[in-house]
Fold each of these.
Amino acid sequence: MKSTINYILWVLSLLSFSSCDRMNDLHDEYLQRGETTYLARIDDAKIFPGNKRAELIFVNKDAKAKTLTVYWRSRTDSVVYTIPENSVGQELKVQLTDLPEDYLTFELVTTTVDGKSKSLTSELSARIYGDNYQASLNTRLIDKAIYLESANELDVTWKGVFEGAVNIEIEYDGTDGNTRMLELPIEERSILYLNMFDDNLKYRTGYVPEENAIDTFYTDYVDLPFSELYVIEGLTFNGTNQYMTIANHPDFNISSGEVLSISLWMKTPIGNATQRLLMKRYTSITADPDNGNTGYGIAPLSPRRTYADWYYRQATNPNPGGGSNVLSANDYYPLDTWMHLTAIFNSATKQMKLYQNGNLVGTSTLPAAVPANPNIVNISDVVVGAWKEASTAAPYGFFKGEVAHLRFWKKELNLEEMQLDMANPVTAETPGLVAAYDLRKVIGTGTNLTISDIKGNHTAVLHGYSK
């Protein structure tokens, strides 16, 4: 019995030693690796999305951390950022570029210089924006836009705001040849100064997809349609020595079968004297031996009536001075008040017409003795605000008042065209326009002053003015 017990104790002793050996084998593996040390986990991080990119901002809390690896798309893409020395507690930025447009989860892991110690993973998610978001954007719509040319002021009333819209960019060509740009905040109404505005007014809308986005997305530029507030403001004539000339040119003659229309705005405080508003003829027959004083003119005269004349040559009269046809308006004009005048000289019909503010106030027809389609040509300059006997003669009959928006047309303006002429600016491409002068726009310094023709062909020269 005793031997049996001793045998059992011996067997248990062997089992005990065997079990301890196996347990030691399990611990040895970890003891050989050494103790695992984890770096401080990144728990103070933010990500700011942009256009196929993002900016990661984090605070490093571990002096042993030397690199930060940022993974995305299940760790198939990554970027490694070297953490600057002595940056513990500082806010650091990592630029993440070439990102896909998608909802992405970013994993952040810091590592020691030898790579043996790492932090536990931190995760951040963000939507990255790109072409699809860009294509979804809409240009903000305009309710109305009015341009006041005299002040270079654009007044825009906008329609509703689309989500994410943050600004408007305005672009235009300047008179100096440079492209100019203005940035406007999102408002219901924008009033802005277009310095040196010339042409090609465009705008686009800027969007920020979310509050912390680092990029602004813009729609394509589109034309900014506007109506021009038509301001009647022109050149003042003092009635004593100021006038304007436009050099003689066939554009201002009335050749056989042609029509010439002249339109302008005028106002004068004078109602009891004849003043020359515009004239193209020399009153001395000898000043133009071939044509005499053939030509035309417009004048306010006493008592407060507008007047047009047409001097022509008669085939039966050897005198080059020929005859004249005079048309006096049957309506009085108001004193010191803007009035629109249109004078029409039609060689094909031999008719002369005069309109005030778009209303016909007189018609006259050349005598039957005048041959069909007469030529009304001369060598005279166009004189505005006075008249002259000859090119070298002193001017007379000075106009006192103001003249605006002087225009010459090689066509007969109809009533609709006159209404448009009264309310709208013209361009160099306006059909039938020969020359046009915005008399506010005086160019030059001293006494060398001119006013440009909108078509660039017939510059007007000022006399008696200085600035």
Amino acid sequence: MTKPDTAATGKAGAATAKAGAATSKAGQGARNLVQRVAAALVLIPLALALAYAGGAAWTALVTVVAIGLYVEWLMVVGEVRARSVTVSGALALALSGGCLALGLLDFALVALGLGLVVVAVLAAGHRSWAAAGFVYAAAAELASFMVRFDQNHGWFALVLVLLVVWASDIGGYAAGRGIGGPKLAPLISPNKTWAGAIGGFVGSLAVAAGWAASGAGNIVPVMLVGAVLSVASQLGDLFESAVKRRFGVKDSSHIIPGHGGLLDRLDGYVAAIVLAAILGLVRGGLDGVGRGLMVW
């Protein structure tokens, strides 16, 4: 009788294990994709409906989201257990949202300013990071309100931002998974590739052109705005990844199936909407942010 070839048996076992791991990973990826699509089919129509309604409905949504962003940020930086920091910041964001719904921008700014001071004073372990999280959430809340506030152009401006961010994310995901290639920023986000970044950028240009052609604005300037917002969206994604890596966190939470947390899902949106609000404010003034973004 011959002795079994232990080396060959070991290699076969390793190959089988590797194949099993690959199959498991592929199955997990498929389930993740199904969850992402299902969540998008629910969340995108909801966001568009409330964006179209504007006013108190849209402000209520962005206020709830801002509070969620703030709480998740505190979870990432390890400050969420300090209830006074969490509650005071959340209350300030809620109060600001109520003021914005009533059109009281000055009072909203005062509420946010006081909230920032209280958060900075109460935070013990990571004071600067907790304060930064409050500023991040407050900026998202204010910018989302200001872009939509313009009665004539706010809807078009807000949808442009949403479409660009979604196209950047979807195009980046498709190109990154389908093409792969060199990593964009391996020390910050190992899964992101240059192919994904370019795919997201091209997708953003396409949806910006389509939105302009539907009557939202002139194609060339709207595409240029879309290009700038796409870059901002991708940088916002990298920024959030850098913060999570700094604190050794993979996902900010698991509130959205297949997507992780609000920070994971809205990092690009926050950067894009804040930049959009700044551009619109510079060109159109406080009551014409949407016009400043769309009319060139």
Amino acid sequence: MARVPGTFNPKTKLWEGEIPGTHEPSFVEPPLREREGDGLHAAFDFGECLVLLSLDGGRWHISISHPHRHPSWDEIKTVRYRLGGPDLVFAMVLPEVDRYVNVPEQDHVMQLWQLVGGEAEGW
């Protein structure tokens, strides 16, 4: 599958390939279980993490959060490949200081955005 994110009707297709790179020795991949979304996002449970998938402005957006800590790198990259498949390019964007948005209630949320067109060249 070149582009795994599909319609949210009835279930999002998950890429079942091997997640690239190494993992921390203690990491065990939990199932990514779809739950009822809000109509704008597909929602998933991934262990203790909440994952939201949406199509925003022509690009896929993945949000992963944990209630008590930042999601681990293994959690972030596993969710990225399961939902985004092997052929898309995603980035975590850290904007300039004046445009940085964060509130204490969302302190443990990581955002991944699909790079499109020329943005993805060379990655």
Amino acid sequence: MRFTVKVEWQQDDGTLATAELGELYAGGLRSATDLGLKLSDAKPILTRLQNIVAATQVSSYCESVRKCPSCRVPRRIKDYRERKLDSVFGTVSLTAPRFERCQACDRPGVLSPLTALLPTRALPELGHLQVELAAELPYARAAAILQKFVPSTGGLSAVTTRNRTLVVGKRIERELIGEVEAPMPIVNPAKHLTVGIDGAFVKAKRDEAGGRPFEILTGRVERDRGRGHAFAIVRNLDARAKQKVQAVLRRCGRGPQTSLTLLSDGEDGLRGVVGWFGKNCDHMLDWFHIRRRIDKLARQLFYLPYRADFRRFLSLHGRNLDRVKYVLWNQGIEWADRAMKIFRCGLVEDAWDHPEIDIKRFQEIEARLDELRSYLYANSKAVSGYGRAFRRGERVGTAHVESTVNQLINWRFCKKQQMSWTRSGAQGLLHVKTAALNGSLHNYIQHTQTKAIAA
């Protein structure tokens, strides 16, 4: 069977035009693979249709801007230039006219209408697809996927994909620096913000600071309990990492009267990054990190020396450790310290009843218990009110921030792709990933095109 695919369209003067897009051949149906269109058959048809639609639009547009804006006299055509553009439906070949200076009002300059309208080699939709895929996948893999599904077009190499992604990242970076240098007035300041912040390290290239890993500040700002606004800043890219984080907070509605709850793992540097406005900032030690330390203690109990009463003592130690967790959650660090002493006494009793057994395992658990106690007392002012805050529906942990670290950093920079990064390259990609995560990436792609047309 032979199918002929045609397109018919109505022109500006009302007449109808027809063009043939191509022919398809379909044999007998012997299996599921013989049914319907194939991707290889559809690609040339889509490319042909794209060229017809684009050429018709360009012709209409050039005719509409041919008249001089001053005297409205049509300008003479100087010559024609061929333009090739990359799109998701293949390479578009356009014939673009250039107009001479106006003979009536002597308006200077040769006008090329498509130069201002189409400043780049790629249409926005293709650029958006490339940037979205590059935010989630390695550049080479993103380029390979597009080459498989998109009709034959240019600009799909890994290098071009990387360059187009970093162009968007640099635009977001310039916007953020502009906010740092000239803060915009806060239209709708928030009464309260909850900020969860954490850090992660990424392997650097050898030519940057000897290849030592660099730190990325990652977090979420929540105005109301929900998804929140994610951010990721390379800490030692420049001297303005702190100001950038504060600019993100201002975007989210932080004003001089906004109260702030900061959740972190207790590092002093992380607490100071958000900036302090009088007494409007409260720090709470992240329950996620506390719970993780206690869980490590619980797992070590299973490696105590085995003997006849192992299960009885294991149950005793488990109950004592659960008491530590309970009183820390509901009553605070002082009661938790008493519960830790009871837990320690149980360990001593266990080891004392069996002096012939090596006590090295008990000493390891005691050392980790001492580490937990020191960690809590070093942040004593930030360890309280977990139960009350949780019952009020407030955040008490940074599990959502850990998820953000996985989404932004680990699965793209560390776990799945063991790569070395430059600080500027990592920051540009992180800006793109956070914009995609926050649902605002399309704004920057459109902004790029709009600014170019206005110029």
